[in-house]
Amino acid sequence: MVSEPVAVHDDIERAMRAVPRREFLPRSQRPLAHEDRPLPIGRGQTSSQPATVAAMLRLLRVPLGARVLDVGSGSGWTTALLAYLTGPQGSVLGVERDSRLAEWGAANLGRTAMSWASIEQATPGMLGHPRPNGWDRILVSASAPALPRALVDQIGYGGRMVIPIRTTLLLIERLPDGRTRATDHGGYRFVPLIEDPEP
Question: What domains lie within the chain, and their CATH numbers?
Fold first, then answer.
């Protein structure tokens, strides 16, 4: 299902062709996989519009070998796209607050045979997944009312996070001196980010 990984400078569309959205949708939605719009995946969640996913991935600039966190992994599609971009030298962890979606997304991801990527249920009360030295890249696919400090703190030096805040897509960069820089990259609509996951 998945061909060889490509370098970060290659077109994101190549990754999206290699990791078809159709394989990460409920059967009822698969005939609509080619449409450039959000599609329901159950549990009140959606598979984001492909154009939006592509825009986020371009901002994220995922290099080969990166350590990446995917917050709100849903069906597993974005986790798989990130894994394709990092290649087997990298590692990708998707976290999903809904246990049923996490299980389904992990099964979808498992069919890609990209063993350097995994999905697990988010720890209740914890946003993201802290790791020593932080993450090289963080993708957040749900909208927060304000920039979550807990996630900013998980960006490693030289790292990037793409996150929707209300209806604005932000790129957060961790500078070499440890400071962060935020830039605005347009308006989008996402499902809300819930900071206290359900048990």
Answer: 12-187 (3.40.50.150)
Quote the CA–CA distance of 47 and 41 in Å, as a whole number.
Answer: 6
pLDDT digits (tens, 9 = 90+) for 57-81: 999 999 999 999 999 999 999 999 9
pLDDT 10s digits, 150-194? 999 999 999 999 999 988 999 999 998 999 999 999 777 676 676
Q: Is 99 a catalytic residue?
A: no
**How many other CB atoms are found less than 10 A from the CB of residue 4?**
8
- Nearest Cα to Cα of residue 36 among 58, 52, 25: 52
DSSP secondary structure string for all residues of 74-108: TTSHHHHHHHHHH-TTSEEEEEESSHHHHHHHHHH
Tens digits of residue pLDDT in 108-150: 999 999 999 999 999 998 999 999 999 999 999 988 899 999 9
Tokens encoding 137: 């890249």
Give the whole-angstrom CA distance, residue 53 versus residue 50: 5
Query: How many CA atoms within 13 Å lie on the side-chain side of 97?
Result: 22
Of 47, 48, 73, 143, catalytic: 48
